[in-house]
Design a protein that fits this description.
Helices cover 47% and strands 12% of the residues. By secondary structure, the chain is of the alpha+beta class. The longest helix is centred in the middle third of the chain and has 26 residues. The protein starts with 17 loop residues before the first helix and ends in a 10-residue tail after the last helix.
């Protein structure tokens, strides 16, 4: 794992899908990150709690189990980070209208199949959907991340995935704006910084020409 500082703020859910939010748990550029949200297994559980895919009770049980199986928990965290980087590469590439690496697509498919071993069909008020097993293996937080990534690959939203317009941010998001013109991962963050830069450029004092 890279020696990246821990993030000083909570995970921000601005991507529009669990998979993209998970890809955004690394701050700044993926080649030179500024902060990291996933430094220990508990962080992975906290992400799943924030995403709404684990209950508080499930989260506590997983953290307790991780304390009893630290080597296994560390292995799951490494797997999670590998999946995160794969998700980011795939959707960043597709956002740029390029072709994703088949190996990366295969990785998502493998994780999806591993997750679906713990799912069953269940009828709901609006149709039929997957329901997840009550099992709580340590890789439980990965199930819905993998499912979200697989679903997004087959979704109409795929055409509207964007990378943040900031030169120092590579966060991904689904552009669901009316005209599909959203530029920033978060208007209150990257968007505001861009506004400040433009304001300063417009109001920069003109250079005084030296007299001859």
């Amino acid at each position: 794992m890279r020696d990246t500082p821990r993030a000083d703020h909570n995970v921000e859910f601005v991507g529009g899908s669990i998979a993209l939010d998970f890809a955004n748990t690394l701050g700044g550029m993926h080649s030179a990150p500024t902060h990291e949200h996933l430094l220990e297994y508990r962080d992975l559980v906290d992400f799943a709690r924030g995403a709404g895919t684990l209950t508080l009770s499930q989260a506590r049980r997983l953290v307790d189990e991780a304390s009893r199986q630290p080597a296994r928990a560390a292995a799951v965290l490494r797997r999670a980070i590998a999946l995160r980087e794969t998700i980011w590469r795939v959707f960043d590439t597709l956002a740029k209208s390029a072709r994703a690496d088949p190996k990366d697509l295969a990785t998502i498919h493998v994780e999806e199949l591993a997750a679906l071993r713990h799912a069953r069909y269940e009828q709901t008020g609006s149709g039929v959907d997957y329901a997840w097993s009550d099992e709580l293996p340590l890789d439980r937080p990965l199930w819905q991340i993998a499912r979200s990534a697989a679903d997004l690959l087959k979704s109409n939203d795929l055409a509207h995935i964007r990378e943040c317009g900031s030169a120092t941010c590579e966060w991904l998001f689904i552009d669901r704006s009316r005209n599909h013109t959203r530029k920033w991962c978060d208007m209150n963050d990257c968007g505001n910084r861009a506004k400040v830069r433009r304001f300063r450029q417009r109001h920069r004092a003109p250079k005084v020409k030296a007299s001859r």
